[in-house]
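Next comes this protein.

***
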Amino acid sequence: MSQERHLHHRVEYGRATLLEEEAGEDPIALFGRWLDDAIADNLPEPHAMALASMGPLTISCRIVLLRSFDTKGFVFYTNHNSRKALDIERDPRVALTFFWAGHERQVRIEGKAEHVSAEESDAYFGSRPRESRIGAWSSDQSRPVNDRAALEERFARWTDRFKDEQEVPRPLHWGGYRVRPVRIEFWQGRPNRLHDRLAFEQLRDGEWLRVRLQP
């Protein structure tokens, strides 16, 4: 008979504040400042974000890496035959979450994913280490494999395939997605669980409406 576990670990947050005058009117600019803070303080994996997508039966979530962002959206790369990519093809609505525990900060992004251009995917693929580029050819992402040895054997075969080629080209089944945000929420931990929450919602004219939410 299983026994329910009650977890009482608590952390009292109080490193910083998030007031309207600090946030400004532009959520992309605020995100950039928070990301720069995480990078400057060497927080672990500052570019890591949870990506939630809608599958045929359930919602799935996994960690991916942010590779670029601007006013148009947030970009990550993957195999277009992966589960996340197939989810997006069925339903482009996705959510992203960043959590920088060292700064007691969280950012939630909601929007729709779309393919980046082939030129953008080519440029990023060319910047990856050679072994990572070969890995994109050797892995049928999200598909079953008999064991680790079989996976490593596939990598060895593709390494041999490209041994005489200076460049490893991008496979057509690999590329980027841009999440165009319609809502971005910033969370700053505060004492007594009275956290700061500022949400930005995009209006039809492209401007952002800022709203403070109760914690």
